[in-house]
């Protein structure tokens, strides 16, 4: 086979075949311009009997060729085999109604920065697009017009049982495409349902995005990654303007990045906690509010009514509604009214409960050392980290402090006047003044509940060298300042 650097590949496909081939991530991975020669060589020797697991396909295509591996690789190789190599440069992409499409691909030493057709990489450019749900004719270019999911909802949670995220912020639920009549589609493309959202975002260098999601896009069961996967699989795959065919020089999973970036961008501009606070609506265990009070406060901020949801008479979710002019990636999100009657709250007596409520303890003092009589932690729970009054991550299974990963589940068991803690790594103890959970810790340390916070030796103050960020973890100590551990942190039990 001639080197790919000297080969111009003309892919002449009928429209139906072209659409079918582009529908599968396995094909996209194998047909990547910088890998095409390797893929052609692999496909030339491929037999379905030889492939039974992802490990049997080229490493660069593993992420795309999952599920029924043999079937998907076979289909991808069939599409690649239908491509006809020629030695002359193909004609430019036609703008006529011809049923064939001609694309020129050349070898590069790295991922291409522009598409084979010469357009800039990234989402397809959109001109004077109509506003979704307001078109007067049938929209033909669904890369620049969101349909059938033309109303986009930015949805938020206020979780209190168990609590998630900062105690002065709502958390992100998702970005949903509703049909214009209030119905919706779900799980629209099984071939693009991913189980590695974190890995995809990391591959695009989106560490800041992941850190933000780790703080504000929280799963109440502690499995953020699974929650993100669910939101993308159920809702992201149903957004027409995020289809891979809507990208020039599609690089693989970039629509996933765009989905999460847009959801976070919208959420960051919709500070529900502050909107309500400005109307004197604040979390309380005793105060109640009317539906009109809450709706008026949020309508004033958004410009249009929102959807408000309650559970057990307590406020727990808000949805902001938009129509979009253009695509989701770069288009204009225009606030609008809900696409139907969706709010589910009573007219009066609505509670807005505080997060991270703890039992009010009573304390006695012996000398200068306070002794808490608050109930010991029991059962299973997370240890949420607080510094400067803000929730910043949690403890993970080794006993270290982390801000971007999944919280570890701890088991608390009564012991004397306090309790012991165990994680999946083993019993937890203070080893050389550092909180540690490991199988080598022969006996768990006895901790107490001091005013709701984890305490050791009658103190709920712990220390670290810095607030962890990215993939960095921090050890937690009982000594600060002179030991170089200048960040004070406390840990609050969140039962699960």
UniProtKB/TrEMBL annotation:
GO terms, biological process: RNA catabolic process
Active site per UniProt: 173, 231, 235
Lineage of producing organism: Eukaryota, Fungi, Dikarya, Ascomycota, Pezizomycotina
Disulfide bond in keyword set: yes
A GO-annotated cellular component: extracellular region
Location within or outside the cell: Cytoplasm; Vacuole lumen
Keywords, comma-separated and alphabetical: Cytoplasm, Disulfide bond, Endonuclease, Glycoprotein, Hydrolase, Lyase, Nuclease, Signal, Vacuole
UniProt keyword Isomerase, yes or no: no
The protein, known as: Ribonuclease T2-like
Region forming the signal peptide: 1-19
EC number: 4.6.1.19
Domain (RNase T2-like C-terminal): residue spans on this chain: 376-492
